[in-house]
Amino acid sequence: MRVERLSRDKIRFFLSLDDLMERGIEKEDMWRDIPKVHELFNDMMDQAYRELGFEISGPVAVEVFALPAQGMVVVVTRGRTPHPADLDELEGDDMYELEVTLEESDQVVFQFHDFEDLVQAAVSVRHLLGAGGRVYAYRDRYFLVLDTDMELNTLQQGIAVLTEFGEPSTMTEHVLAEYGKTIWNEDAIGRIIHYFS
């Protein structure tokens, strides 16, 4: 489980499939008001406090984005800090109120530290995933965005191969397109192989 600060009142967690499996949590469980989900959220908040000094009380908005064959991204946004008199009424597990929304992504995004890693990844997954995809450069990294309209087993094999060269990213294509530089907006894997291998 990785956590990063997005702003003063917003943090983002990346939960891998292993993180969820260790706790016996399925994607659908994130909607349910069950003890293991509360325990996961408490663990997340403990980690956010230890690593980032991020503390919550009062209302909290939680956005859950399911990433195909990778896990989940959870964005936690702090609401207003309650008045000290209101804190007297809140006890234990009631120290925060959750508002949860769940979205499922139909894309896989991988980041690569250098261009050569991206080239090697493209060569290795071409036979599995075809010539598609889009590539962006952002913050000294390269990002490969793939649509997931393929058989789940093929997608999982492709992700396993990509993981040898890069790592899954919580970055959305909207952010990459707006703030990054578009290298290829279609057929990225095919073009990388055509020009660089």
Automatic annotation (TrEMBL):
Gene3D superfamilies reported for this sequence: 3.30.70.1950
One Pfam family matching this protein: MecA
Lineage: superkingdom: Bacteria
Residues in the signal sequence: none
InterPro entries linked: MecA_C_sf (IPR038471), Neg-reg_MecA (IPR008681)
Family as reported in the entry's similarity comment: Belongs to the MecA family.
Name of protein: Adaptor protein
Organism (species): Paludifilum halophilum
